[in-house]
Each structure stands twice: as C-alpha cells, then as structure tokens.
Here is the input.
Amino acid sequence: MNNGSRRRAPYDEKGKMKLDWGSLKRVLGYLKAYRARLVAVAVCILVNAIAGVVGTMFLRTIIDGYITPVLKDGMAPDFAGLTGTILFMASIYVFGVFATFLQNRMMVTASQGTLKKIRDDLFSHMQTLPIRYFDTHQYGDLMSRYTSDTDTLEQMIMSTLPEVCSSAIRITSAFCAMLITSVPLTFVSLFIVTLVMFLSRRIAGRSGRHFVGQQKALGELNGYVEETVSGQKVVKVFCHEEKATEEFRKKNDALCREATNANKFANILMPIMGNLGHLQYVILAIVGGAIAVSTGGAALTLGAVASFLQLSRSFTMPLNQISGQINSFIMALAGAGRIFEVMDAESEEDDGYVTLANVNIDEDGVITESDTKTGKWAWRHPHGTGEITYTPLCGKVEFFDVDFGYNEEKIVLHNISMYAKPGQKVAFVGATGAGKTTITNLINRFYDIADGKIRYDGININKIRKSDLRRSLGMVLQDVNLFTGTVMDNIRYGRLDATDDECVAAAKLAGADGFIRMLPEGYSTVISGDGSDLSQGQRQLLSIARAAVADPPVMILDEATSSIDTRTEMIVQRGMDALMKGRTVFVIAHRLSTVKNSDVIMVLDHGVIIERGDHESLIAQKGQYYRLYTGAVELE
Ligand SMILES: Nc1ncnc2c1ncn2[C@@H]1O[C@H](COP(=O)(O)OP(=O)(O)O)[C@@H](O)[C@H]1O
Ligand SMILES: [Mg+2]
Here is the structure.
C-alpha cells in the first residue's frame, strides 16, 4: 500500500523537472471548447501587462515635463497639466485592474467547465474498465486521481497558466520599455539578472534531487498511515500500537530529513533573489544617477532614471516568480498525466453479438420478438447468413476443458469440465485458494478463459454481449456492498425498472421484510457509509433481496453466509433457499451442511475437480469429501 512512490514524478533520473508535453496537449485540447473566452483572457492579460508598463512610463513625463522645469529652470508650476497627466496615468492603472477582473471571471468559468468535463470523462471511462484493472490498482491510488490530482490541475488551469502567460508578457513589455528608456541601464540590469539566475540555477539543481526523495518519503508515510487507519482493529488486537508508532516515527524522520534538505535550498533561493533585487535597485540608481549628472541630463533625464528604476522592478519581479510558476505548472501536468493514464487504460472489450430479447412464446414453442415487456426472454442470435434464431433463456451452463490463469505464469484452473442443467444446484467445495471463486468469475466473464469453452444455453459465452450475459446471472457474495440511498434504492439496484411492490416482494422472499419494517423509516431509511449500522446478516439479506428483484435464471452464491453467525445463517439460509428455487445455482460454502442437498457437488483441489457426485455417492466413495464431511480433514 504505497501510493505516493508509484506516482509519476515530474522528474527525470537526474532529478531535473521534465514537462509532460502529451498531457499539456490534452489539457489544451479540453480548453479548446472555451476558445473564444481564452482569447478574451489573453487580451485581458496583454492589456493589464501593457497598462502597467505604460503607466510606469508616465512617471518620466511627469518628472521631466512638470517637475524638473519647475526645479531647474524656475518655471511656474503647471498644476492643471500635472493633474491631468496624473489622472490619465491613474485611469490606465484602473483600466489594467478592470482587465484583471474580467480575466479572472472568465478563467473561473473556463477552468471549472474543463474540470467538470475531465471528471466526467474519467468516471465514465472508469466504468468501462475490466475487473482486472481494479485488481491491479489500489483504491486509494484511484481515489487520489479524483481528489489531489484534479485539485492541482484546477490550480494550474485557473491560476498558474494565466500567471505564466502574464509573467511572460510583463517581462517582455518591461524589457522593451527599458530598452526604449535607456540602453546602457538595460545592459547593467541584464548583467545582474543573469548573475542571479546562474546562482539560483545551481542551487535549484541541488534541491531537485532532494525533492524526489521528499516525494518518495511522503508517499511511504502516507501509505503507512492509510494501512494503519484501515487496519486499526488489527493493530489494537495484536497490541501493535507502540510498534506502529515507532515505525511511523522512523518514516516521519526520513521525510523530515529529505524535506529539510529540499526546502533548505528552496528557502535560501528566495531571500537571495530578493536581496539581489534590492542590490540591483541600488546599482541602477548609482549608475543611472552618474550618467544623468555627468551628462547634465542630455544622455539620461532624471525622469528616465526614475521610471527605469520602476521598470526594472516590473522586469525582475515576474522573472523571480516565473520559475516557481513553471514548477507548479510541471507538477500539475504530472497530476494530469495520472488522470489521463486512467483514461487511457484499455476498456473492457465486448464483441458479443448475441443479445437478450423480450419475446412471446406460443403453444407450439414458436418464439417471436416483442416490443413490450413480456417477462419472457430469449437469446437473439444473428448468424452470418443473415438469419436470426432465438433460444429461450433457461440457465444451462456448460464448461468444456477450461484452463485459466490470472496471469501467464500461474495456471489456476486445469481442465474444468462440468454442466449445470436449468434448475440444478451445483456446489463447489474445496480449500481456500482451490479456485472456486475463479470458476464463477469466468461464468460472468470478469476474466476470459485461456483455453476451452463455456456455453450458456448452448451458446459460447464469448458470443454473448457482456451486459446481457451479466443480466442473466445473479450474484450474492460474502462482502456486501451497499450504496448511499434508501433501503428501497438498494434493493432496486438489482433491476432499475422494478416497482416498489416488486422490491417489497423481493424483500419478503429474501426474508428481509421483517427487519426492514423495524427500521426507523422502513423502506425509506437512508443507508450511508456502506450500511455500517446494519448487522452483517441484515446486509446479506438486503443483497439477497437485490438479487431476487433482478430475477435471473442463474445464481451464484459465493460464501454468502460465511461471515454470519450460525443463528442468523438459518434466517439468511431460508432467504437463499427461496431465492434458489427454480434457478440454476452455483453455490460455494464453507459449511458442508448448506451444500448437502445440491444436485451435484464438485470437490476442487488446486484448480482440479477431484471428485463429483451427489452427497450420498460422494460419501459412499469415501474420498476427500467423505473425509471433509466426517471431519477427518478441515477445509482450512
Ligand atoms: N485477481 C487475482 N489475480 C491473481 N491471482 C488471483 C486473483 N484472484 C485469485 N487468484 C489466485 O487464484 C487462486 C484461486 O483463487 P480463488 O478462486 O479465489 O480461490 P477460492 O475461491 O477457492 O478460495 C489462488 O491461488 C489465488 O491466489
Ligand atoms: Mg473464494
């Protein structure tokens, strides 16, 4: 559980930051929808930057045109002209402020709209990902793409991106204005700036390496906290608190060390830049003053020096900021890269063309498709010849020599052959890890088989559209997932068009009706936090009701009663028996008493069916099942 260290850090091997061009292009692609707005934003940025520079240049006019003549030549002060110029200068600044206001307003809409689109795309793509993806990606890791990565991206679009543009424009326009005002002073200024840049680059280069270390240490610390929080019960049970704290302290020390090193340099950098900035001010004032005095104002007027000093500030200030802005820009792009990584993950493929159709079946067994709800279903099978055949949905499942492994190195199931006729109950027993759950994962095509064939109602399941295949299969698992919403909503999750009455009927069938009516608001009680205020048995009853409302011909019950106490199990078992009636059922259970009445019991061992038959015949065989049943061997 270590999310942080797996993050795509925006650094290359040498600890230098690298820009993720691909992600930048895609972010810009999203922004394209707001093209007109962004052009307006660019104009606003330009107006604001230029207003700042032009305003500053008026300082020269004020000094040289209105103040120097009074002081030097003893002319009468022109108050009206001075006031006019000052007012004009002020209105230019006000204009700049107004442009900034417009820019920010438009940027908010553009960035929020873009983020909404990105979140929508991310979520809808996530829904198309295969189970395999979720096996190999951690929950926390996926979550962080919705939270921290989108946050940094938001920051980037809303402020960093315009800031970088604005800084670039301000630097350029100030530089031009400086050149116009005084070429020699511009060179002096450039020299100082280059020196400062050179120094800060050397320092930044060193801190880059430590930033990588900091990221890694932070990731480890976060992973550890996450593990400890989710496993708090285990920590307490095994009295591991002190050990955990000690471990945390170690990781925290490591983080502190790396962060100190990383930030030491970063924090040295800023004050140095700041102080050198002041130094530049002083040097420019001396050099400018000297030129102005020595040439008697011919080469450089007093007003020009004053306005140059101001301009040099407008030049170095964004220059100081831009490297930080570029850093956060690169960081945000790395976050965007992680979002796009999920979006680029391959969707679950579905080339099935056999679909489920609502049909009418007349007395002669002729099947005709129907537009209205008939409650009868058939597989609609278009053939290469253009002919369409219909096969009634019955729930017959057959395996022929199926081999399967989650990855190539390890084959989990070997040569599994079996069949379940409609309405039959097939049980799988065997030790943990024998491959029972895996078999059920293949029936609903969470995974595709390596070799062999699986048929549903005689049709190869690879030909059946996945959504229809899964609609014809119900599942009740050991872990129940409830969603935020009312009890009724949670039952209706099984089939969205079920009426309230149908949901209540399903709850009654499952035996859940009794406890639901005891809840404060009955069926309208809101479940939150995965139903943590319900007992395990109650949660299981809800999931049985959910499966019942879907009313599929085939049911898979995987250790559904394993985490329930024996007394509650009796109630849940009654619900399950009702649910199983008239369906093909695959049942996996720890307690052999629950599978005893199955039509056929398969004993699995290391992915191989070693025995099969009904309870009596297996007992008579005196094999593994017999030993399990009589307690000579334990299941675990
Ligand atoms: N998602 C998975 N990825 C890789 N291996 C898995 C996965 N799920 C199960 N396995 C492996 O497959 C084998 C069978 O597991 P499973 O079918 O869950 O056993 P059972 O349900 O009988 O306890 C085990 O060795 C397990 O480690
Ligand atoms: Mg299992």
Summary: Residues 436-437, 558 surround magnesium ion (ligand 2) (CB under 6 Å).
